[in-house]
Specification:
heterodimer; A: mainly beta; 4-stranded antiparallel beta sheet; globular; B: 813 residues; alpha+beta; 6-stranded mixed beta sheet
């Protein structure tokens, strides 16, 4: 089969953020984010990869209009903005780490969003939040790989994940 | 070591010891090529060591005769069924187990009761727990689901369970399963009949995500709107009973799917008489339920070059406006199928095209699609054609499509497969001006999902693997083949799985082996679809080659057509039919979470000494002269420091004319004596080697990912030539961590690259180059190219630009 979860719009208990509706989607319901510590620049490079098939129906519901990721630049920009709004870094003291938008692109069946962030050389840990599309699909799982700082570390974000911590070796 | 750490270490070692009967307990050697016989089940007369059904192979047969009535107004189904169960096993059965999937949606089902609030695993709407920073959340979808359950009673109402003499049979319902105790033990070779009535409220698919159900269309012209009904897992079905698992009575939890026994179905479906019904099987009473015109259109479709409408858009739209109060019965028969599904709606357009595949078994297959106006042109153009394309491709890799129909139905389910019929979800988008369009992604989705679901009719509807135990056996094989079919449709449509697509998942630390039971897999998509599909792709393109792979894969499909294979049958057949030992591949890819990361650590150049001092001493002199000069000496020279030997040129001796590389007859005599002392074959070998003067390189590799793979080498020579070489995975058999390889070349090397085409799912390409290359990060590469990125053009807007004549610029001197 191909998975077919239906649309749902997440509300917090206090604030309704989205309207209800129907949407079909493709099977994967997963994204992969790579946080790469680039030793040449000293920056954390953040690459988010989403399946276009997975995402387009969700965006139709999220944006309230038809979504065309492949050809419509405004859809791409809004999806990129959405992904960035649903990804966050902060220090272990819970001070936000500012991420900068680098851009986005369609590459085959994937939509990529790129960000950069400066990381204090002395940082021993960062906390990560990644809940994109989980308000639409309960099954959405966002995998985050942290690379370039010793052995790869991975975090799996499901609806229940909230903030997760990864210990670092300084760049 | 603290006692806690010690205890934990001991526990881990104990676990490992239990998992593996043969252990390497000294050193760090890992036998990546240990044969799988220790893991695979012992072959027997039902399943042979070659991976094919044994001479005593058996499987049960279950035939159904069902009459069902669809109560459209109340969205309820009432039915009765006669089950004929044939015990072909060598065992005597005292009871039968049945699957009651509709009960999975009752509030007291194991699936519902074991649901983890805000956890993973359950299909459908979501919840979100309080994580300390944000309040707990509940989705509109979850609210809808809860409210649906409050207002509706899901689950079966089963009554009158009797034998062929109408005597009541004792039975017990255990969650989503039911055991029926037989009046007397059913011996091998005997058959028995069971009758029962059942009813249930049809689920609203959009509310509960059940792989079936109804979808309501409130905006149709008819007051109150219309529905599309998709019916699957809609009757109590006898569980599979096999030689390797006995009763497959593992309860349906929502993810692991629905293997059943093959059998013959005779199903009568009573629905409103303005409905169109699509079902598993062949319609038995077309004269009763179809108009003469529709029957004539069906005949015309058999040899039509493009799909022919049986029910046109206009006819379907007209039917949407009203509803009939009368009903009629559609009767279908299907032989040798492992399930039965159907759909019904007055909204359906219906098109058909004959697939003239030839052969003896089923020369003509009717490919058909059923879709509402919401499917529109997207469906009209591509659904039925995709059905035919799938059969065209899949049959080349397996067997001729054996059933008389292959159908694609649009409804509320994104994609789901049943024998002869599939449910597919892509739709068009309605605009306020009344038009309907679709995006390029939606077009790819429709073509891709139809290929995928029709492909499932081969795997697992005919090659009947158990999805609940081994999801990869149908999803993985099918994702591999849908990639083959997709690339034959349009290679620019990025549908198939490339090895590079799976690397980030495979190097992550949160994953489970492919050989994990479906309900326990953490991330089903990469685990059951993408990784096994990538593995098969690599097996075909890199390890075995297409000729061997395709032959073995087809052999597997044909051996297990209409039978029940297990993973060991697949693994063994692929090896046995190809003559390639693949145990290392199956073990690494399917039983572990290792990944591929082969590093080219070092390349050393060697040169054969000729032993001839006149040659070798001169080479040593050249090597010495090639070394950089001393900075000290250079600076002295730059400063004009006059050397003693220059200032006193009149004082010189023999060594001022002859350096330490000077050859004397002493060395020449020794060389000549050495030649005389050589065995003739040694002399010939040396002479030839000296004559050819080849280049010798030692390449050193590390296996950093754990997964052994062939080493694909690309050699670049100083003269610009490029050569590809292949080192089989077996190079790792006695040295799983580091290996060296001597290569001999005619020309001098300038660079070596491992896996230049990214064909092996190597997760780190930085260490694949020697000398190392500066490879920009993805973001660096993006920054470099983004100004030229064609995809950033607003083509949809720009395409409306009117063509204008260029403005002529007047040139004057």
């Amino acid at each position: 089969m191909i998975f077919i979860p239906k649309f749902l719009a997440v509300i917090c208990i206090f604030v309704a953020t989205l309207t209800s509706g129907n949407a079909d989607s493709h099977e994967q319901k997963t994204s992969i984010t790579v946080i790469l510590a680039n030793k040449n620049t000293g920056f954390l490079e953040i690459s988010h990869r989403f399946n276009i098939h997975d995402s387009e129906h969700a965006l139709t519901e999220l944006f309230g209009t038809s979504a065309d990721i492949i050809n419509d630049v405004s859809t791409q920009s809004r999806f990129s903005q959405y992904i960035q709004e649903h990804f966050a870094l902060r220090t272990s003291e819970q001070v936000p780490i500012v991420t900068h938008n680098i851009g986005h692109e369609v590459d085959g069946k994937f939509f990529w969003v790129y960000q950069e962030a400066a990381l204090a050389p002395s940082a021993s840990a960062i906390e990560i939040f990644a809940d994109a599309l989980q308000s639409v699909w309960k099954r959405q799982t966002n995998l985050v790989n942290i690379e370039g700082l010793g052995p790869i570390q991975s975090l799996r974000f499901t609806l229940n994940s909230g903030w997760q911590t990864v210990l670092l070796k300084p760049i | 070591m603290s006692s806690k750490v010690f205890a934990l270490t001991f526990a881990l070692l104990s676990t490992i010891a239990q998992a593996d009967a043969v252990l390497q307990t000294k050193g760090d050697f890992v036998d990546k090529f240990r044969q799988l016989e220790e893991i695979l089940p012992t072959p027997n007369s039902y399943r042979t060591a070659s991976g094919e059904p044994g001479h005593d192979y058996w499987q049960q047969e279950v035939d159904y005769k069902i009459t069902a009535v669809l109560d459209e107004a109340n969205r309820r189904l009432s039915a009765s069924q006669e089950i004929s169960y044939s015990n072909n096993s060598p065992e005597t059965l005292k009871y039968l187990w049945l699957q009651l999937e509709q009960n999975r949606f009752k509030s007291d089902s194991m699936a519902e009761m074991s649901g983890d609030f805000a956890g993973i695993g359950r299909r459908g709407p979501g919840t979100k727990s309080n994580d300390g920073d944000a309040p707990a959340g509940i989705s509109f979808g979850e609210l809808r689901r809860q409210q649906y359950y409050a207002d509706n009673q899901p689950g079966y109402l089963i009554s009158d369970v009797t034998d062929s003499n109408n005597a009541s049979l004792p039975h017990i319902i255990v969650g989503a399963q039911m055991r029926i105790d037989l009046p007397k033990p059913l011996k091998p070779g005997q058959s028995t009949q069971i009758n029962m009535n059942f009813q249930f409220n049809i689920l609203e698919e959009d509310a509960v995500s059940a792989r079936a159900g109804y979808e309501h269309f409130p905006d149709d012209a008819r007051e109150g709107g219309n529905d599309i009904f998709l019916l699957a897992q809609w009757f109590p079905r006898v569980s599979a009973y096999s030689d390797y698992e006995a009763w497959h009575n593992k309860e349906f939890l929502g993810r692991g799917e629905f293997t059943l026994e093959f059998g013959n179905y005779d199903v009568s479906l009573t629905v409103p008489d303005d409905h169109i019904v699509a079902a598993t099987g062949v319609l038995q009473n077309p004269k009763k339920v179809l108009t003469k015109q529709q029957r004539e259109r069906l005949v015309a479709a058999e040899k039509a070059p493009r799909p022919v409408y049986i029910v046109t858009a206009e006819e379907a739209l007209e039917k949407e406006k009203t509803a009939s109060t009368a009903s009629q019965t559609w009767r279908f028969k299907a032989n040798n199928v492992r399930d039965f599904a159907w759909s019904s709606s007055r909204k359906f357009m219906w098109d058909a095209k004959g697939h003239q595949q030839g052969g003896d078994e089923q020369p003509l297959v009717m490919a058909m699609s059923f879709f509402p106006k919401e499917g529109g042109d997207l469906w009209a153009k591509y659904s039925t054609e995709s059905v035919i394309h799938t059969m065209d491709v899949y049959s080349r890799y397996s067997f001729d499509y054996p059933y008389p129909v292959a159908q694609s139905v649009n409804g509320p389910v994104g994609g789901m497969e049943y024998p002869m019929i599939t449910f597919n979800g892509p739709r068009t988008t309605w605009h306020e001006d009344g038009t309907r369009t679709y995006t390029q992604a939606e077009k790819r989705f429709l073509i891709g999902v139809v290929i995928h679901e029709i492909g499932h009719i081969y795997f697992p509807m005919i090659v009947n693997s158990d999805e609940r135990q081994w999801t990869w056996m149908d999803e993985g094989l099918n994702s591999f083949l849908d990639g083959v079919a997709g690339r034959e449709w349009d290679p620019t449509m990025p549908w198939g799985v490339e090895p590079r697509d799976i690397t980030d998942y495979m190097k992550s630390t949160v994953q489970v082996p492919i050989m994990t039971q479906s309900d326990s897999v953490l991330r089903l998509g990469p685990n059951a679809y993408t990784k096994p599909a990538a593995a098969l792709n690599i097996l075909r393109e890199v390890v075995m080659g297409r000729e061997l792979f395709d032959f073995a894969f087809k052999e597997y499909a044909q051996r297990w057509k209409y039978k029940r294979p297990t993973p060991s049958d697949f693994f063994r057949t692929m090896e046995e039919a190809s003559g390639v030992d693949l145990d290392w591949f199956w073990h690494g890819w399917f039983y572990t979470t290792d990944h591929v990361d082969i590093s080219l650590d070092k390349v050393s150049e060697l040169r054969l000494d000729t032993k001839d001092p006149d040659i070798d001493y001169a080479r040593r002199r050249d090597e010495e002269n090639d070394k950089p000069a001393s900075l000290f000496v250079d600076r002295n020279k730059a400063r004009g420091t006059e050397l003693w030997v220059d200032k006193n040129a009149d004082v010189s001796d023999f060594y001022d004319q002859n350096d330490r590389f000077t050859v004397t007859n002493k060395e020449r005599n020794k060389y000549q004596q050495m030649l005389v002392d050589l065995e003739p074959w040694e002399r010939a070998a040396l002479e030839r080697a000296v004559r050819e003067d080849k280049h010798y390189y030692v390449l050193e590799f590390s296996n950093l990912g754990g997964l052994v793979m062939p080493i694909l080498l690309q050699l670049t020579y100083e003269n610009g030539e490029i050569e590809d070489r292949y080192i089989p995975a077996e190079i790792w058999r006695r040295a799983p961590h580091k290996v060296k390889k001597l290569i001999v070349t005619d020309n001098k090397l300038s660079a070596v690259t491992v896996d230049p085409g990214w064909e092996t799912a190597d997760v780190n390409v930085h260490n694949n180059h020697y000398p190392r290359k500066i490879i920009p990060s993805r973001i660096d590469a993006y920054k470099a190219k983004k100004s030229k990125d064609l995809v950033r053009r607003d083509i949809m807007h720009d395409v409306t630009t009117e063509l204008k004549d260029p403005k002529i610029k007047l040139n004057k001197k």
